[in-house]
Amino acid sequence: MPHSSHPAFRVRVLRSGSAGNAVLLEAGLTRVLVDAGLPAEAILRDLPDAALTAVLATHEHDDHLRGAAAVARATGAVVLANEATLRAAGPQLAGAPVEVFRTGRPFAAGTVTVTAFPVSHDAAEPVGFVLEWRGARVAVACDLGEVTGPLVEHARGADLLLVEANYDLRLMAVSAYPWFLKNRIVGAQGHLSNDGAARVAVEACRGGTRAVALIHLSEMNNLAPLARDVVRAALDAEGLGGAWVQAVRPNAGGPWWTVPVAGGPAPTVPEPASAVR
Ligand SMILES: [Zn+2]
Ligand SMILES: [Zn+2]
To answer: What is the Cα–Cα distance from 230 to 173, expressed in whole angstroms?
Structure first.
């Protein structure tokens, strides 16, 4: 566990992509997972003392919820979801302690204040999350087909923004995916392209965001360096080139990132070298 004299707000993508998603956030003694779409054993390996406060569910799709019930049972964590997601999840959450939140209404997960906001995706009531602790704000948004007002509003100014960059339209056009699947992915309730992620990043960074992590990349239809370059180029073009941008490789995990908080340790999401405001 972290040293309580220097509490940190840390974020680590355990896995991201179509094969499973889980993002771990640590805020002092509170540990929260955004989604648990991996086998429970894989998640528990990254929780050495099996301490977890809550699992926040973005939506009911298997690659986000697969391990949630087993992880909650093993750690005593509560699964937090909105009512429509719970209903749609059905037996997937059997035996897990569950609590309901309302989209748009802030709630507590341990010492972290969480707000869910609506996103456009083909699920019952899909959401992204803003997590706030000691004045620092992390926004997580994946599985969404278009850039909407609530998404931009909640991403704007987040100290760390994790946003989906699922596919590159040019790679998608030549990939072997069947046409019905391509149509679903590029649709308004599908997934976000690199260009879409770039639009969100620009809006966020205009509002003061300095660090952007790209998640849920497609193994078939995207490449991490390409996604990163598309977003960087868009930020450069808007005079926001000082922001830090990283892309998490498809179906892989990332390092710990430390988000700056008052009295906390030095951030490992580096300050940009040349901030052009
Ligand atoms: Zn997904
Ligand atoms: Zn989904």
So the answer is: 17
